[in-house]
Amino acid sequence: MKRIDDAPLNAFHIRVAVYTGGGMFCDGYIIGSIGLALPLLTAEMRLSAVWEGLLAAAVLIGIFAGSVIFGPITDRIGRQKVLVADLILFVVASALQLFVTEPTMLLVLRLILGVAVGADYAIAPVLLSEFVPRRQRGGLLASIQMIWTVGLVSAFLVGLGLQAWLGADSWRWMLAGSAVPALITLMLRIGSPESPRWLISKGRQREARRILDKHFGPEYTVDDADTSTSPTRVSYRALFSRRYLGRTVFAGGFWFCQVFPYFAIATFLPTITEAFGIGDSAGELLYNLLLVCGAVVGLLIIDRIARRSFVIWSFAIVTAALLVLGFWPTAPLAVLLPTFLIIAFVIAAATNLETVYPSEIFPTEIRSAGTGLATGLSRTGAAISTFMLPTALDSLGIGPTMLILAAVAGIGIAISVPLAPETRGVFLAEAARGSAPQTSSPASSTSTHA
């Protein structure tokens, strides 16, 4: 029998990537839509800096709750059920933002949307990783993160168009617009199959066999090493056991340190560019363009260079660039703008690792729990950074604020050097159960091909 890890890439794999990626597009759109909407609703509702921070961070707070709660639930009841249910919540909560009349209503809806987004983070990349061939696994997992970036940038571009068309009241349509891609994705997900790896881990071999026969063929099976039925009760305790603690710390830690500066800058991009004297929309457009370019390049190189090298060197470059902005905030535009764009390009490229690493380094029975916990920790960082950024800018100024972001990126290096494993090209079961932190040079591109 052949492993599904070695199956040739086919139309079914692409379909799974599309409907899992559709959820990530919605995630990016929901998070990105608040950036242009916030100044407009701040003026209309006369919001304080605290309310600005709360509304900017609300989705991220909800993501923490959704990912931590639904990670183990997904490992317990299955991927497919939650995959459909969270999109229903997307559609309803997105549409209701049209009818908001005061900030508390919007805060509640953004928190609910965050819960749905968090659930999707714990499910979509996990489900995709459990279907795709090992040699294309990195690229396909990275593709849904790239789609997240496209969703983020699409929200910005749609927002610009709506603002030019509808004026001050356009913020409602910016926020509610996420209902459209959510509805399309929901229709694609209805009738999607359950993960055969999860079914076998629950002793449901016949159901798994039917799915394998239909989508892969009778000659394919799942690696026994990835389908242990011993953990009958899904618990976060396993993630903090001696066996998985290092992976848990790495998955949550590197993701936290990546999104801390990413979300702070992306959410308050107009405010930050104005503070640096790059106050026109051209700077914002260039930043968003470089986000997309970085995400595409990250997708192209994810299976060509070592994961470990990618994560360490991306942190090093972003840290260095943020230090330049922090220590020299009055630099000429010829220095500030390229440095700012380097951050956008590199950080967007490296975020492709966020859907790759957590889905690879935990076994089936705790894969969603591990991914959910890592997501929750990352969104804690994103929520802290977006909540504190307006206050930090007001009280400390732009230079010290950039130094705070640089310090967090530097912590990412400190976490990744001892803990980042190498998983490129490895069978999923072996990556999850046998990978160990590598102690070789960060620049090493050596990987294991089973």
The N- to C-terminal Cα distance equals 16 Å
- Runs with pLDDT <50, length 5+? 435-450
**Class from secondary-structure proportions:** mainly alpha
The main sheet orders its strands as 1-2
Can you describe this structure in just a few lines?
One of its GO terms (molecular function) is carbohydrate:proton symporter activity. 75% of the residues lie in helices and 1% in strands. The protein has 450 residues and is mainly α.
Structure explained in plain terms:
This protein is mainly alpha-helical. The protein has a single domain (2-434), classed as Growth Hormone, Chain: A, CATH 1.20.1250.20. The protein is built from 18 helices and two strands. It has helices spanning 11-45, 49-77, 79-96, 103-129, 134-166, 170-176, 179-189, 196-201, 205-215, 245-267, 269-275, 281-301, 307-327, 333-350, 353-360, 364-395, 398-419, 428-434, and strands spanning 2-3, 220-221. Strands 1-2 form a two-stranded parallel ribbon. Helix 5 (134-166) packs antiparallel against helix 6 (170-176). The longest helix is centred in the first third of the chain and has 35 residues, at 11-45. The radius of gyration is 21 Å and the shape is globular. It starts with a strand and ends in a 16-residue tail after the last helix.
